[in-house]
Structures are given as C-alpha cells and as structure tokens.
Amino acid sequence: MSLVLYSSSESDNEERASTDESKNDRVRLFPHEEGNWALSIYAFVDCSSHMDTMIDDLLEIFNEKQEIWKRLGELHLSLSKTFPIRFLHIESIRKSLQDELTTSMNRFATHIENVTILNNEDSSTSFLVFTVDQHRQISRLVEIVDKILKEHRYPCYYKNPCFHVSFAYSTANNRQEKLPLDWQEKCQSIFKQYQCQPSSMMIPIDDICLKAGKHRMAFRFRIPNIGFRKRMSWFDFTVACVVGVLAGIYTFKPGLQQAKDEIERREALKEIQARRKAEMEQGSL
To answer: Where is the composition biased (Polar residues) (predicted)?
Structure first.
C-alpha cells in the first residue's frame, strides 16, 4: 500500500521537533520566529491498559525485522493544523473556544476502525495511525474550531479530513519498502483479538486542548442530559422510547400480573357480596 499524503499529523511533527531537533530526528514545518508560538487544537486520548498493549502488539508487526517505528508518548485526535500564532492572539482564541465549547458540546465517544499510514506535509515523517469513526460530533468540533480560527485570520482544518489518532512515527529512509507485505491482514487479526475489550477500541471525547508552545489549556464538555434528546433524530428517539417501554414491561411483568389478579379477585368478591345481599332481600319478602 502506498503512503497517503495527508498532513494533519503535523501536530505530532511539531511537538516532537522541539524535543528531537538536536538529534536531527525530525524537521520543523515552519521556522521559529521571535514572538510566534506553535498552536494546535486537539482532543486528548486517554490510553487504556488494553489499548496500550494493543499498540505494542501492532508495533511488533512493523518492527519485526528492524526497529524503524517509534512510539509516540501522547495520543490525541487533531482538530486543527499546527501553525505559528502571535502571542497576543492566544487569549482571544482561548476565550472564544471556552465560550463556544462549554455551552454547545456534550461528551461523546468514537471508536477505532482501522490502521493506516499517513505522511506529514513535507513527507519527512510517516505516522502509524488509528482511523476513527467519522462521528458527526467530531465534524461539529472542527466546524467550531474553524469558525474561531477564521475570525482570527488563521488557517482552517483540511477539507474532507480523515480523523485519526497517531501512535507511532518513522523518519527512516525507504520505510515504505520495509513494510511487511501482509501488515494490513496482521493488523486486522490483532483487532479481532481485542474486540472483546471495549476499552481498547473506544475513545471517549470529554474535552479538547489548546496547546500554545509548551502551555496547554483544556476545555471540558458537559455531561449529556435529557436535553440531548433534542439533538437526536426522530427515528433514534422513537427506537429509544420503544426499547424503554418494552424493557419496562419485561421488568415489571410479574408485578403487573399480580396487580391484575388482585383486581379480578376484588371484582369477584364484590359480585358474591351483591348476590348474597339480593338473596337476603328476596327472602325477607
């Protein structure tokens, strides 16, 4: 499989460039200028113990003959490009994000679908990534971020993005030729082994982070409540109601039958008492 030329992994590139630049391991996407800060916006991904083990198993596939892929320390789902920003604009963007996200977004979850390989913008680095479900809430997040960045005259995210989580990178020469021929089949086999562990495949999205230089600011989403029903489709809402009613009937069926039997018993008792009263009145005549 040929490498996909897609550059939304550049936030990983910029993050590691600052730490590995002295080793010539990674290359900056833009030169450092006094007064400019590298800014990126992303959703933090909490790596569960099962996901951590799954990543180790996947890396064994790609590093079977030679260790050319290195694991990334922190996992995240990018919602913006990484770009230089003037320091005086950071607070304005932070406030706009806080105002928008804390009032309009609820927590949600997406799930891992596949493993693929993406390149950064100048093809100097390749990434092993989890592609994730193209959840409508992720698209909504990107729309909010794009709107704010556009208002501040900064670049928006890519059109028709492939939402993903990078977990390893490589700068080795001829890394494409060194890929195992059956790596896709082996990755699918690993996925099947971990499907019984939901925490290895599910990615909760509870907040997003704004990173400017080495400073990070988090914006936590609301916990979903009954108001979330308004954003559900009528079909989903109807199905949820039917399932709830059926579950309630099944759960309380013994109690309903007992109540029905009690009502029938009382009606029968009333009927017997009415007959006796009528017989007594007829006898007195």
So the answer is: 1-10
Torsion of CA 153, 164, 9, 21, to 10 degrees: 130
Percent composition of the chain: helix, strand, coil (DSSP 3-state, to 5): 45, 25, 30
Q: What is the DSSP letter of 132?
A: E
240 and 201 assigned to the same domain = no
| Residue 224, domain CATH | 3.90.1140.10
Query: What does residue 38 show for φ and ψ, rounded to 5 degrees?
Result: -80, 120
Q: Which long-range contacts (CB under 8 A, 24 or more apart) does 102-105 make?
A: 102/219, 102/220, 102/221, 102/222, 104/144, 105/137, 105/140, 105/141, 105/144, 105/221, 105/222
Q: What is the pTM of this model?
A: 0.68
Domain count of the fold of the chain:
2
Q: Report residue 19: phi and psi, to 5°.
A: -95, -25
Residues 120-177: tens digit of each pLDDT: 878 889 999 999 987 789 999 999 999 999 999 999 999 888 999 999 999 998 888 8
Same domain, 261 and 131: no
